[in-house]
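dude i think i finally got it to work??
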Amino acid sequence: MLLHADARAPQISAQALGVQVAEALLAQGAAEILKAVYGEANNE
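look at this
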């Protein structure tokens, strides 16, 4: 599985840019990959 997200923003908006990219990756299925790598948060 290959996920891709592109975004640009001024340096002052770095945090918002990170959130935007994270949401785009989650919409593509990144949550499944994170669960496979780190496991479910409630199973710790």
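The mean pLDDT is 91.
im so relieved honestly
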